[in-house]
Amino acid sequence: MQTNLQYLHVGLTEAGFPAVEYNHLQEKIMEGHARIVIPYSHTPDKKVYVHLHVVKWNDCPFYYFSKFNLSIPGKLGNAMVSRDFYFGSKKDPALYFSEAYSLLNGKPIYKKRLFDRAKLVHFNSWLQLDFNTTDGNGNFKIRYFKNKIQLNEENDLPAIMGNSRLYGQQTNNKSENVDFWY
C-alpha cells in the first residue's frame, strides 16, 4: 500500500496538486472505497474549486488518479464554469492543473507529444476549449489547432492573451524563460 500511496503522491504532485491530504486518502483506501473524491483547497484563488478523483483498479488493491474537476468563476461574474479533466482518457490529453486553469479561462495552450490513437502518431498542437460545444458528459470540447496561424484565424489571440506569456514561450534572456499562467 505504501508503494501505491507513493505512486499517487508523485502523480498528483506532477499534475499540480502537491498539498493533498494523504492521511485522509490513506484512511479511505484502508476502508476499501472503490472511488475517493478529495476536495483540494490549496489553490491561490479561493474562488477556484477542485475535486480530485482517485479510483480503485478493478479487483486489485491498486488506486490511480483518474480525473479532477475544476470549477472557476465565469467571466464578468457569471455562473461557475466547470469541466472534468481526465488522465489516461482515450479522447482527451492529460493536462496539468495550470493548463486546465488556463483553458477554462478561455486561453489556448500549447502541448507537445500528444498521441493520436487512431493514427498511432505523436503530434504537437495548440488546444482551446470550445465553450459552445459539449461532449456526452457535459464537458466543453477541446479544439486542436495545428499552428498559431490557424489558432489566430479563428480567434483574436492577442485580445484573448493580453500581455501574458504563453506556456512554453521562450525569450532571448535565459533567466526569463520561466513559464507561468494567467
How would you concisely characterize the structure shown here?
This protein has 182 residues and is of the alpha+beta class. The chain contains five helices and seven strands. The strands form two sheets. A four-stranded antiparallel beta sheet has the order 1-2-3-4, with helices on one face. The protein has a three-stranded antiparallel beta sheet with strand order 5-6-7.
Strand percentage lies at: 25-35%
Helical content class = 10-25%
Main beta-sheet strand count, sense and barrel state: 4 strands, antiparallel
Strand line-up of the largest beta sheet: 1-2-3-4
Termini Cα gap: 38 Å
Question: What does this molecule look like?
Answer:
The protein is an alpha+beta fold and 182 residues long. The chain is built from five helices and seven strands, in the order ααββββαβββαα. The strands form two sheets. The chain has a four-stranded antiparallel β-sheet, covered by helices on one side. A hairpin with a 5-residue loop joins strand 6 (121-134) and strand 7. 18% of the residues are buried. Mean pLDDT is 78; it is low at 166-182.
